[in-house]
């Protein structure tokens, strides 16, 4: 109940501020919170919301929250705080650099920072992530971690699109568990009025397959529906 109130408060904050210039709030419902091929909600549904501010200069900051389920760790809520700078060249090349702090109010040992940088052009976006303490104090020993991802959104007629993703995790953290990992997904998106729907298949190439619901990394189908406020008048 406490975690639900926190998410509700995030929603009220978004509702109260989206009327201001540069402020938006995005809400998502999903049957499974997937993070780089691993379930963060024990294959249960998740409610996710954000409040974001973007200045004309390209600087932005925001907060994002979701329910999670880490099993015996008794972690039920994730709140991410982030800031960065984004822009686009005259030739249409987009860029974005920033940092995110993953916070778990139930157990601060899981808290950690991660920096990122990305470039995008038309349907393609590539992004590199780095943390010198991946997983926070919850992981023993060296925890340096890298993540490189490539994403493609290919528009189709009638508001449909093809969604493709591949990511690669490596570094000291992954060496310690003996399994650098590739995750990937392929799906279809559809936009109807103010809502974005997506249905995708997610899987990994890991040899350390987790078959339990908590942190499950088997192949599975994930559905999401999202909307961003304020709604366009179009």
Briefly, what CATH class?
A: Mainly Beta
Overall pLDDT score: 91
**Amino-to-carboxy terminus distance:** 37 Å
Biggest sheet, in brief? Answer: 12 strands, antiparallel, barrel
| Computed structural class | mainly beta
Coarse morphology: globular
What is the CATH topology assignment? Porin
- What is the percent of helical residues? under 10%
**How many runs of DSSP E, i.e. beta strands?**
14
Q: Order of strands side by side in the largest beta sheet?
A: 1-4-5-6-7-8-9-10-11-12-13-14
**Strand-residue proportion:** over 45%
Number of domains: 1
What is the H-and-E element order?
HEEEEEEEEEEEHEEE
Helix count, per DSSP? 2
Annotated CATH homologous superfamily:
monomeric porin ompg
Description:
Helices cover 9% and strands 53% of the residues. It is mainly beta and 234 residues long. It has one domain (2-229): monomeric porin ompg (Porin, Beta Barrel), CATH 2.40.160.40. The strands form 2 sheets. A 12-stranded antiparallel beta barrel has the order 1-4-5-6-7-8-9-10-11-12-13-14. A hairpin with a 4-residue loop joins β4 (46-54) and β5 (59-67). The longest helix is centred in the N-terminal third of the chain and has 16 residues, at 2-17. The protein is globular and about 50 Å long. The N and C termini lie far apart (37 Å). The relative contact order is 0.15. The model is unreliable at 14-18 (pLDDT under 50).
């Amino acid at each position: 109940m406490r975690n639900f109130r926190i998410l509700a408060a995030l929603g009220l904050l978004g509702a109260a501020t989206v009327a201001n210039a540069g402020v938006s709030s995005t809400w998502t419902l999903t049957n499974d919170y997937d993070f780089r091929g691993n379930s963060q909600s024990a294959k249960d549904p998740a409610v996710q919301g954000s409040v974001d501010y973007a200045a004309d200069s390209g600087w932005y900051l925001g907060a994002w929250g979701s329910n999670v389920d880490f099993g015996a760790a008794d972690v039920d809520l994730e709140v991410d705080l982030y800031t960065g700078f984004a822009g686009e060249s005259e030739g249409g090349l987009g860029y974005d650099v920033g940092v995110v702090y993953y916070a778990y109010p139930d157990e601060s040992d899981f808290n950690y920072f991660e920096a990122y940088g990305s470039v995008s052009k038309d349907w393609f976006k590539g992004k590199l992530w780095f943390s010198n303490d991946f997983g926070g104090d919850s992981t023993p020993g060296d925890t340096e971690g890298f993540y490189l991802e490539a994403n493609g959104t290919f528009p189709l007629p009638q508001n449909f699109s093809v969604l493709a993703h591949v990511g690669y995790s490596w570094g000291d953290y992954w060496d310690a568990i003996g399994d650098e990992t590739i995750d990937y997904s392929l799906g279809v998106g559809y936009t109807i009025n103010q809502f974005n729907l997506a249905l995708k298949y997610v899987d990994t190439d890991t040899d350390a397959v987790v078959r339990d619901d908590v942190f499950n990394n088997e192949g599975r189908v994930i559905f999401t529906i999202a909307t961003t406020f304020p709604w366009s008048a179009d």
